[in-house]
Amino acid sequence: MIKKIFIGIVAFTLCVNLTAFATSLFPIGDVTFDGTVNSLDAAQVLKHDAKLISLEGEGLVCADYNGDGAVDNLDAAGILRYDAGLTGDQNSVPGPKTVINIVDDSYGKAVGEAYQYFYEDETYAYFFYSYIGEYITVFYSNGDKEDLITAFENGRVTVEDLDRFGIHYEKEHRFYSYGANRFDWTAVMEGAYIGVENELERITEGFVNIQPIDIPLPVIDTLEAAEERARAEYPNEYRHVVFSYDDAKEVFCVAFYETPSLYDTTPYQCVYMDKVGVTLLITKCIPYVIECEC
Questions:
Q1: Residue 33, Cβ neighbours under 10 Å: how many?
Q2: Helix or strand or coil: residue 168?
């Protein structure tokens, strides 16, 4: 393992590579020996990585910006981030480690097909369509690395970092979304509108909303009034609301989820109302958790 010891000498930093026993009186990253760390140094690192030039001695020592024992594009990225003012002084000790690269190495591997949520903010929930988070590695300026899910759980990476390094993800509104298809109210009433992977409880009486409202509920693109009306039947805290609509029968379905999204295995409740806000049916759905040996 390569370690670096930093000893202040006048305005510079003594770089010591314990593996090569090489030293430099220039700052880490100052490959050109001009006393500054900037894009010119990053260019030299990239040329070395591409085997267009061969750095040696002091240049090779200080080109290893992240201290991982290799001089490559990760070091160049770290230098550019420092030059752009996105990180603190790499030579200062102690100092916060910063993200210098994020690599998705999931391609070609056996990755489970399921939704994997890795982060949420005040508005959106962020997820992958597959369980690939453990194959996405976050690299830090001090040479550390960890999988993406762990990095998010510990607050060491942001969505902006994913954008900067081209990691593709999906997001959806934490609170509102529309059902992919209009539902069939007749099928719901007949008890046929439920998948085999769900346990369903049907409630047909004891509703709060038994009096019609004066103004009919809005159409599918303005549903705040439908949510407000339906929440009288669901006093619990909820994190996500999904709306569906039967155009022919003019019946709303407002589904309340206690998790950021409908793609989950936690119970949820659907409130069915007609266009004047009278509750017709409540269903409590408990998705079955299907376990398999993979």
A1: 14
A2: coil
Do 47 and 30 fall into the same domain? yes
- Is residue 183 located within the same domain as residue 282? yes
Statement: residue 3 has pLDDT above 50: no
* 76-to-23, 29, 47, 239, 279 alpha-carbon distances in Å: 20, 9, 10, 42, 62
Query: Which pLDDT does position 6 carry in this prediction?
Result: 25
In a domain, 65, yes or no: yes
Considering the domain boundaries, does residue 90 fall inside one?
Answer: yes
Contact indicator for 246, 272 with CB cutoff of 8 Å: no
Strand blocks (E) in the chain:
4-9, 12-17, 22-24, 99-104, 116-120, 124-128, 136-140, 145-147, 170-173, 176-178, 198-203, 240-246, 251-257, 268-274, 279-287
Amino acid present at 69:
G
Of 20, 119, 121, 97, give the one whose Cα is nearest residue 61.
20
pLDDT of 116-173, one tens digit each? 888 878 777 788 888 888 899 998 877 788 899 888 888 888 899 999 889 989 887 6
Using 50, 70 and 90 to split pLDDT, how confident is the model at 16? very low
Last residue of a domain, one of 120, 141, 173: 173
E-state strands within 20-140: 22-24, 99-104, 116-120, 124-128, 136-140
Q: How many domains does the chain have?
A: 3
The CA angle 188-189-190, to the nearest 5 degrees, is 90
Could you give the maximum distance between any two Cα atoms of the chain, in Å?
84
Q: Kindly state the DSSP code that residue 58 receives in the 8-state scheme.
A: H
Please tell me the pTM assigned to this model: 0.45
**Is-contact 169 184, C-beta < 8 A?**
no
Q: Which of 111-115, 212-216, 254-258, 273-277 has the lowest mean pLDDT?
A: 111-115
CB neighbour class for 157 (10 Å; exposed up to 12, middle 13-18, buried from 19): buried
